[in-house]
Amino acid sequence: MAKPNYQYEKRQRELAKKAKKAEKAARKATGGVDGEGEGEPDSLQDAAGLADTPAAPDATPSGSTPA
């Protein structure tokens, strides 16, 4: 069994935090009142999805079986 790559996972979490922070700063700079509720679910989903992104596009995510 392969060892988990903790550095890769940590880097992905850091990148997700950085992207979320930049998005929040951009939203704040433009006024942020319009669509405040619309952007949150997508950004949370993207942030969660980045940590589980497989290294290769044809690889299946952990915990799932190919169909």
Notable traits:
about 70 residues; mainly alpha
Task: Describe what this molecule looks like in 3D.
With 67 residues, the chain is mainly alpha-helical. It is 60% helix and 0% strand. Helix 1 runs antiparallel to helix 2.
Topology readout:
Blueprint lengths: L5 H24 L6 H16 L16
Helix pairs in contact: 1-2
Short description:
With 67 residues, the chain is mainly α. It has helices at 6-29, 36-51.
Ends apart, CA distance between termini: 22 Å
The main pleated sheet reads as:
none
Number of helices: 2
Catalogue the unreliable spans: none
Return the string of H and E elements.
Answer: HH
Report the C-alpha radius of gyration, rounded: 15 Å
Helix content: 55-70%
Strand-residue proportion: under 5%
Mean pLDDT: 74
The dominant shape is: elongated
Give the tally of β-strands.
0
Structural class: mainly alpha
